[in-house]
Design a protein that fits this description.
Elements: H1 10-26, H2 36-48, E1 51-52, H3 53-60, H4 64-76, E2 80-85, E3 88-96, H5 98-118, H6 124-148, H7 157-161
Antiparallel strand pairs: 1-3, 2-3
Length: 163
């Protein structure tokens, strides 16, 4: 990429576009109760249900102490709670509260509305083509990362399918 920031290859153009979109999608949207790093925890709990803190940290790919701070913050906000682990009485599981689920779904809806507004004026065939190509691209990125042995997170479509 040149110093002026203009992409020199189509791949650089894709990377640049993803960085711009990622910044916007990670930003706190008007009405969000939590920042993106905590939204990811809510997402994982929505996908997996009640989960041990250590397993949740592994899924989000952060250390347990950082996850502990995230969970504590979400607990204080009333968005998650700890419950006894039925498999191990010494451990607990973290789970979404009804308010946590409500906040997660509202935040997800705001982000989907952002995307819908961004595609306003697109015809349905273009949207379907874009979705097909983005899914193909995401599958390719995941396949490369898997081949490298990188950890994977639940697919965002799992959230939509679980609604």
């Amino acid at each position: 990429m040149h110093l002026n920031g203009s992409p020199q290859t189509p791949e650089e153009g894709v990377l640049h576009a993803f960085m711009r979109i990622g910044r916007r999608m990670k930003a706190r949207q008007p009405g969000d109760a939590v920042d993106h790093s905590l939204h990811i925890v809510l997402f994982m709990l929505k996908c997996s249900g009640p989960t041990r803190l250590s397993d949740l940290a592994a899924k989000v790919e952060i250390d347990a102490s950082t996850m502990s701070r995230h969970v504590r913050s979400l607990e204080q906000a009333g968005l998650v709670r700890r419950s006894p682990d039925p498999d191990d009485g010494r451990a607990s599981r973290v789970e979404l509260t009804d308010e946590g689920l409500t906040q997660f779904e509202a935040s997800s809806k705001r982000r989907q509305e952002l995307l819908t507004q961004a595609m306003a004026g697109w015809d349905l065939d273009d949207i379907k083509t874009f979705e097909r190509l983005m899914t193909r691209f995401a599958d390719g990125v995941n396949n490369v990362a898997d081949a490298r042995g990188e950890a994977a997170s639940p697919e965002p479509t799992e959230v939509l399918e679980n609604r």
